[in-house]
Amino acid sequence: MQNRTELSVNETSPKSFSVIIKVCVVIPLFCVFLYFIAVMLQIFASHRQFLDTSRYILFAQMMINDTLQILSSVLLFLCVMGQVKLPLLFCVPLLFVSTGTFLNTTLILAAMSLERYVSIFYPLQRPASWRSDRIWIIILPLWIISFTFPVIEFSIGKHTLTVDVLSTNIVCKPAIINSSPIQGVYRFVVNVFFFAVVSVIILFTYMRIVMETRKMRQDRASVSKAMHTVLLHGFQLLLCLLAFTQPIAETLIGLHTNWLAEDVAFFNYFCFILIPRFLSPLIYGFRDQSLKKHIGNRFLCCSKRDKPFFK
Questions:
Q1: Higher model confidence: residue 242 or residue 173?
Q2: CB–CB of 213/223 below 8 Å?
């Protein structure tokens, strides 16, 4: 009996240590991301020039969206790591937020590319919906569309009507909630459709701006800057597309290594979900000269404030 207990302890100890390492990797990175996003949103709120520009309002929306996406995915990650079972009433909305914000990122990138297109081709006669005081007309449908698809996906699945949403506790995983084959096909079609449409929009706006750059003799600098911004949105879309490489990566890692299934899942989650989401707003924020200046001033002020009184 004692030998069995010791064997059980020896088996669970490495697993517990592995869980602690994973949590210690994810949580500090998540806290740094939240701090940086909070600083950037505070800069937006305290400077009128950002609130009066459609491009920056869309970027602020993207930061809020990515924060919700990472927050929901980290909560799901912690629940899975700790094998915490949640009632369906809390699990389903959490999965809705995770899926909806994932789709919404692509739509916001498309809107940001179109905004650059409108600002170049219609600088004086900009459509009302693309003005800073009316940009909510563009933003609101993006959120509604993004969260409609997860609701439809959940609705087309086979669910037991007698299940109590408050008392039924489950490990909150998409594979458990949306497990039917029809839901898998629907999810694949929706993802491909979203990314195909957004890719076409970004490619179209980039090519049109490139053609305009060749025509214009004046103000080529602003047109060239818009072209590089759209190209950056294409790169951000590629970062999002990394999430679709998870099944391929899982297969390759499983064939060539002896990793446990949970270790493979964590590696894919960290490399293909978390890191791209962290990098996307950071790259855009540090590339923009106005934001870069304010971010530099903010951290410079903080460093001066933290200097000791006595040297």
A1: 173
A2: yes
Band of residue 4 on the pLDDT scale cut at 50, 70, 90: very low
With a CB cutoff of 8 Å and minimum separation 6, the contacts of 277 are: 66, 69, 70, 239
Q: In angstroms, rounded to a whole number, what is the distance separating the alpha carbons of residues 90 and 171?
A: 11
Angle (nearest 5°) at CA 46 between 299 and 68: 80
Q: Say which residue the tokens 């006595």 belong to.
A: 310
210: phi then psi, degrees, rounded to nearest 5? -60, -45
Q: How far is CA 263 from CA 22, 241, 255, in A?
A: 9, 22, 14
Consecutive H or E run containing 139: helix 136-155
Confidence of residue 302 (pLDDT cuts 50, 70, 90): low
Residue range 163-218, pLDDT digits in tens: 555 567 787 877 777 778 888 888 888 888 888 888 898 888 888 877 776 676 55
Is residue 111 within 8 Å of 197, Cβ to Cβ? no
Q: What is the pLDDT of residue 160?
A: 57
- pLDDT given at position 123: 76
Give the strand pairing for 85-87 and 169-171. Answer: antiparallel
Burial 82-107 (b: 16+ CB within 10 A, else e): eeeebebeebbebbbbbbbbbbbbbb
Identity of the residue numbered 285: G
* Pair 284, 59: CB distance under 8 Å: yes
Q: Which helix (H) or strand (E) holds 169?
A: strand 169-171
Q: What angle do CA 220, 226, 231 make, to 5 degrees?
A: 125
| Between residues 23 and 252, the one the model is more confident about | 23
pLDDT reported for residue 165: 57
d(CA 6, CA 3): 5
Angle at 242 between CA 172 and CA 71, to 5 degrees: 40
Q: Which tokens hold the place of 304?
A: 């001066």
Residues in the chain: 311
